[in-house]
Amino acid sequence: MKKVSYCPIHKASPAWLARTFRVACIVLARMSGTGSYFSRRELLLTTLAVPAACGAANSWQIGCFTRPWDHAEYRAALDAIAEAGYQFAGLMSHGGKPRTVIHVNQAVEEAAAIGEEVRKRGMQTISVWGGDFPVAKSLEAGIEGLKKLIANCAACRCPYLLLGGTSKPELTERYYNAVAECCDYAASRKVMLTVKPHGGTNTTGPQCRKLIQTVGHKNFTLWYDPGNIYYYTKGETDPVDDAPSVAGVVSGMCVKDFRPPNEVMLTPGTGKVNFREVLARLKKGGFRGGPLVVECLDRTDLTKLTAEARKARKFLEELVAS
CA 122 to CA 142: how far, in whole Å? Predict the structure, then answer.
């Protein structure tokens, strides 16, 4: 996947700006005519400081899914996501029919047009949730359906297809056999297949890791979801403790918070998830850059959704800059 390069000064967090300002002050002080000068080491450290900060920010793709606006048509969601300052959009649920923006019964031309709607708003599609594919019918039907989702994902120029696994133990083997059969095809279309913690046989990090190892293909990875770790274990498993179990298999994350007893419709940073520590543990396990896509927001007042989305973006920008 080609990552967008930009110097994020216009969207920079206060912490990032503060560090950059301190570097600038050092430069000005050294050039103030007092006779001070840079040592070779000081010059190197100072000149590298700002590019390093830009590089750190650029290793992450901060986006937002359409799900918070699932009472509205997807174009309204994209308008709000763009207005909130995001460069990346995730296509998930919306108020239309079917309920997912991209789905298995969709013509590839329609999926391509949806991708164009994202680009018209100055964004890139970063992840697609396409709902279920018909593996319950048969393995062959499941493979055919998943390939349709992959083709539609590629048509809207999205590099990641997000899967939810199955909540039915009797379908687990068939489901992941279908995934395994489609990994090479997805790679040929430049689409990474990902699964998230979503209940059933993929509730926790260790369960997800086992499923990924069973498929055993580099084009099938984990899309972590700390809010779901809490949600599907009824608050019993802290994602901070769970995160080390997925070292080496994470390629992206749904940014979702949690509040007891079982609430996830929250703006990230306002609930129980310790995102700073979760991300630190994921980084230690090798996830040092990639998509961080907001899935849920506080919807108490629908007129303030865009403002909540903006808050979530700023929260993440400060998180990755610290």
Answer: 34
- Return the domain boundaries, the chain: 13-52, 61-321
Asked if 44 contacts 91 with a C-beta cutoff of 8 angstroms, the reply is: no
- Which amino acid belongs to residue 97? K
Secondary structure (3-state) at 248: coil
Neighbours of 248 (CB within 10 A): 11
Torsion angle defined by CA atoms of residues 69, 157, 116 and 67, in that order, rounded to the nearest 10 degrees: 0
Return d(Cα 318, Cα 128) in angstroms, integer: 25
**Stated pTM of the model:** 0.83
Cβ pair 296, 257 in contact under 8 A: yes
Polymer length of the chain: 322
Shortest CA distance to 301 belongs to which of 270, 262, 267?
Answer: 267
DSSP bridge partners of 220: 193
Classified by CATH at the fold level, domain 61-321 comes out as TIM Barrel (3.20.20)
pLDDT in tens, 184-226: 999 999 999 999 999 999 999 999 999 999 999 999 999 999 9
Q: Please give the structure tokens belonging to residue 151.
A: 């083709």
The residue with tokens 């018209």 is 120
Instruction: Tell me the residue ranges of DSSP E strands in 16-131.
Output: 60-65, 88-91, 124-129
Specify whether the CB–CB gap between 103 and 91 falls below 8 A: no
DSSP helix/strand/coil, 160: strand
E strands present in 167-219: 192-195
- Candidates 217, 290, 280; CA nearest to 250 is 290
